[in-house]
Design a protein that fits this description.
Helices cover about 40% and strands about 30% of the residues. It is globular, with a radius of gyration of 14 Å. It starts with a strand and ends with a strand. Strand 4 and strand 5 form a beta hairpin. The protein has 4 helices and 5 strands. Helix 1 crosses helix 4. The mean pLDDT is about 95. It has one domain: Ribosomal Protein L22, Chain A. This is Holo-[acyl-carrier-protein] synthase. Its EC number is 2.7.8.7.
Length: about 120
């Protein structure tokens, strides 16, 4: 049974400008493991990576119905990838389906959360 769906889109240029003004934004949005992946990337790929992870975390929070804020922070959501490259939410209490896409101008993510064990 579907628990919730979430969708988010982020302007790549907005993230690039934010990262330029506030370099520590990556450590606010990304978990420690995500930050390690981020540091291995080139400049343009870093921006895409951060924008994509931001979009997934926002979409996940929307799917849960709470948003980012009091109940859930960026640090509570960790996106890892399978050997195939497929992204997934680590350590979720739900079965979560994640899709991330990028264009030159946007990063977007869709999340579908299924209830399990009921």
């Amino acid at each position: 049974m579907i628990h919730g769906i979430g969708l988010d889109i982020v302007e790549i240029d907005r993230i690039a400008k934010l990262l330029e003004r506030q370099p520590k934004i990556s450590s606010r949005v990304l978990t420690e493991r995500e930050q390690k992946q981020f540091e291995l990337l080139g400049k343009n790929r870093k921006i895409e990576f951060l924008a994509g992870r931001f979009a997934v975390k926002e979409a996940y929070a929307k799917a849960l119905g709470c948003g980012i804020g009091r109940e859930l922070s960026f640090q509570n959501i960790e996106i890892l990838k399978e050997d195939s490259g497929r992204p997934y939410i680590y350590n979720s209490d739900y079965k979560v389906h994640v899709s991330i896409t990028h264009t030159k101008e946007y990063a977007a993510a869709q999340v579908v959360i299924e209830k399990t064990g009921e």
